[in-house]
Amino acid sequence: MNMQTHRPWPWFFLAFAVLAADQAAKSAIDAATPLGWCHPITSFFNLVHVLNPGAAFSFLAGAGGWQRWFFLGIAIMASVWLIWMLRQPRPRSESLAFSLILGGALGNAFDRAVRGHVIDYLDFHLVGKHWPAFNVADIAITLGAACLVFVSFIAARPPQQKA
């Protein structure tokens, strides 16, 4: 097991880079395009400008406003836990996953705190069916979670027998 010891700063820097990239993209979309804007890029992908006051897949988007503070609270608690986890010696693959999730959580938390909603702008579709629009923060959270799942399968695999 390749453990990272007393060096959490590179992982914090990666989380900050994800946060910065996410906010730069959202700010560019917000400044350059009107709400509801849609620009086809390919036959299956559009750049859009939509707002999501809910969570993943617009969960609780129409809940009346309380969900902003609820999801912001969850993001803050998760971020504190992830920062604590990144300060502990752990395998690099876990640190990578935690830092991606941290950067994404902070990116969407910033949106909820400052804007009141999350800006989404990546829209994939096929045969008239659209995947919910998403952003860089969502990508980082998904990649981090996938990395944790992958690592858990590798860790659970029995060691290979030598012949």
TrEMBL record:
Single GO term (MF): aspartic-type endopeptidase activity
Pathway it works in: Protein modification; lipoprotein biosynthesis (signal peptide cleavage)
Pfam families: Peptidase_A8 (PF01252)
Membrane-traversing stretches: 66-84, 134-156
Protein localization: Cell membrane
Topology of the protein relative to the lipid bilayer: Multi-pass membrane protein
Alphabetic keyword roster: Aspartyl protease, Cell membrane, Hydrolase, Membrane, Protease, Transmembrane, Transmembrane helix
PROSITE patterns assigned to the protein according to its UniProt record, in alphabetical order: SPASE_II
Enzymatic reactions: Release of signal peptides from bacterial membrane prolipoproteins. Hydrolyzes -Xaa-Yaa-Zaa-|-(S,diacylglyceryl)Cys-, in which Xaa is hydrophobic (preferably Leu), and Yaa (Ala or Ser) and Zaa (Gly or Ala) have small, neutral side chains
Superkingdom classification of source: Bacteria
Active site per database record: D120, D138
EC number: 3.4.23.36
Stored InterPro entries: Peptidase_A8 (IPR001872)
Function: This protein specifically catalyzes the removal of signal peptides from prolipoproteins.
Family membership: Belongs to the peptidase A8 family.
Protein name per the record: Lipoprotein signal peptidase
Organism in which the protein naturally occurs: Polaromonas aquatica
